[in-house]
Fold each of these.
Amino acid sequence: MRILLTNDDGIYAPGLLALAQALRPLGEVFVVAPERPRSASGHSITLHKPLRIEEMRLPDGQRAWATSGTPADCVTLGLDVVMEGRADLLFSGINAGSNLGWDLTYSGTVAAAIEGAILGLPSVAVSVVENGSDRDFEPAARFSRRLAEAIRDNGMERWTLLNVNVPALPQERIRGVTVTHQGRRQYVDRIDRRVDPWGRAYYWLRGSLKEETPDEGSDVHAILEDRISVTPVHLDMTAYSLIAPMREWKLEG
Amino acid sequence: MRILLTNDDGIYAPGLLALAQALRPLGEVFVVAPERPRSASGHSITLHKPLRIEEMRLPDGQRAWATSGTPADCVTLGLDVVMEGRADLLFSGINAGSNLGWDLTYSGTVAAAIEGAILGLPSVAVSVVENGSDRDFEPAARFSRRLAEAIRDNGMERWTLLNVNVPALPQERIRGVTVTHQGRRQYVDRIDRRVDPWGRAYYWLRGSLKEETPDEGSDVHAILEDRISVTPVHLDMTAYSLIAPMREWKLEG
């Protein structure tokens, strides 16, 4: 199996190394990741400047490639340049921080998996929910390997991806795995206004999670219950239930 | 009606001005847009550096605000800072170039409308399909006004947006309006490899559309038929049909 690995925390992120080490027993792993952190980069791609790829070494001495692009760029460069068009599976992560509910479209980690799905690869995004300073990637790495085996054995529908979130807990405190739907997530207090030394205003984006009771069966709910969440995701964002009512709007003429 | 306007082509783009002028008869229009072009920025947001907002004037002398952020950042800054949390409607565009099928998640224009939907505003992304040098925004601007009136009269379901694509044709050659679903779009020849004056490789992302017969009823199909496409979009990307089969994967334990 030829596996493409990327992330949005950058080539030196410990979550990427943990994932590479977990998947190497399953086949040939090609790590192609951004040269610097690209969190919250969404599904951005680089069209207005050229991209570079540098071969380098991960901290464990294994070969990898750093690119000047976004996570989605890394998928195209990884598949078409580094892997010469031949890949069987894509993993993105392990992200330090959750990608739940509506955060999905902001996430560079998930965007890389969306890009993989568009390019026809079975694709998985993996994130660990932050919990203070606890960033133990081991349970997420172990589950990633299990999931890669399950995809190899069961196949995945074309043009879909899996979004995985793992509680930031030791293995023995994780209570199981739930196949979930994408939940809802809203933020409040989104702006932090400050004044610079010259008296001019500037703004930080921030935001606290709005207190809400999460949907039963959602990704957010699974994490609250200390379970691993696996959400199957497709590329179609159409709100089908609105098509017929909108035809009554008489937009013609 | 208080209307927030943004785009991804930047504050000086002619499509933004055309949209502002079309919507001003319906209420108070607040233009808050990126200070420079941010195409293909996806749903990226700026978390790692602070943002600036500058008040300025559009080419027609009307007040506007340029920000250092992405299209999605402009929506948060526009709503929370410029409009003090009170807005009734968001429009993003008019983009010079289509946003059809899977291009939806790459698009900064659509990302701004996704951000608006997350923040609870009825939100619309409007694009004109490019056709050589023809960039006449007038039919798209006219349709935007009609659509804003229809939203005012019919309401819009919370947490949804509309993705509008208008053929790059004179008004009299546009054959009508279709409420569509999101189609599929794939690219081939995605990489253009070149060598710099020092002998090192670099890469442009490019891509030609793969020849495919578009789905009947899709956005891509409507545009091929010289019709305006309006796609209702929601934030839930779950592939619901895969939840039950995936439960058979026995990922536990």
Amino acid sequence: MTGNGRRVTVLISGTGRSLENLIALRDAGELNCDFARVVSSRAGVRGLTVAEEAGIPTTVVARKEHFGTQVFSEALTAVVMADRPDWIVMAGFLSLWLLPESLLGKVINIHPSLLPLFGGKGFYGHHVHEAVIASGMRISGCTVHFVDTRYDKGPIIHQRCCPVFPADTPDDLASRVFGEECRALPEALRWCLDGEVALGEGRVLYSDRLLRPSGQAEDEG
Amino acid sequence: MTGNGRRVTVLISGTGRSLENLIALRDAGELNCDFARVVSSRAGVRGLTVAEEAGIPTTVVARKEHFGTQVFSEALTAVVMADRPDWIVMAGFLSLWLLPESLLGKVINIHPSLLPLFGGKGFYGHHVHEAVIASGMRISGCTVHFVDTRYDKGPIIHQRCCPVFPADTPDDLASRVFGEECRALPEALRWCLDGEVALGEGRVLYSDRLLRPSGQAEDEG
């Protein structure tokens, strides 16, 4: 698989499980792109190994080695821009990135809740699922959104939902939501690669096909 | 069908479409209860005709003929209590009812959003769906919850979700959510009738069976 020439950079901070899923779908011919680079905001994480084993170039821009969000963001921007990727996917990337204006509408993020619920500073990993369980909600899910310079606030591209069972531990719920993430992120990335979504004036523009999907897409929802 | 002796009072304010669904399921043997009475907070609404045609006693406690929430609530409580129902279902009931302590844990409500999103004063009917569409969320749904004396705030018993399509009008979304309501409300009412849920100290207690449903219930979620 060489892809259709669209080049995607993936930003990670940890295990790279979403990255692994994207690579597997690319290898299976279900995601038509090349991976330009994997950039991690933490050194020594498993996700870097995942990338290396797939032959994807990696760079660490360690958050803790940069003083403040501004300096970190500048370093990250330089690394990302050098490859001139078509799309940038935050897949378990936990640091705030003040991205340059020129990248608005080219960066997407996946978050393990139905935003605007359980998003923003402090809501990552198990903190999200603990909060969902404490709320008593019986539905959770995940959100793919365009990234702006605020945590988890950009316009929503796609969401998928799943049940929350009363006896769920945060790990139980995380697993179930991750199953939805493994579908939602590739679906949304495919839409990006195929030019079926774009960032308009602070909102998401959809192709005619996506505006009101037929029966098949009811299932995708 | 005479039911198993559990008697349910249904509170409505309008068309009675949820009531119609409950009656149809009762008639089909899928909901094992009797309807003690239908009480409407508005005179002349279609839901009263639905009840009458099903042979269910009706009473109007018109919100606008009672001065203030307290006086209205006392009148409604008197009508409801006279029948000594086992359960009280708000199915499109739009008035605030300051229910007596003795009824806490016996009254359930269905709301056409994933609470706590899009609930509270002013969020009823098309206002809910307009707000969901304006938010850009791609998932909505419905919530069944125990009623306390605040709008849409009691502990959540059950939720179901559905997609929001980018081109949805509020009516499109209302129809899709109503499809979920027609499953969620009978499911939750069945749990109530069967003693599988109860209101504990401000939270919902579930039977062992419901705590972590197996495969079949994944579909119910």
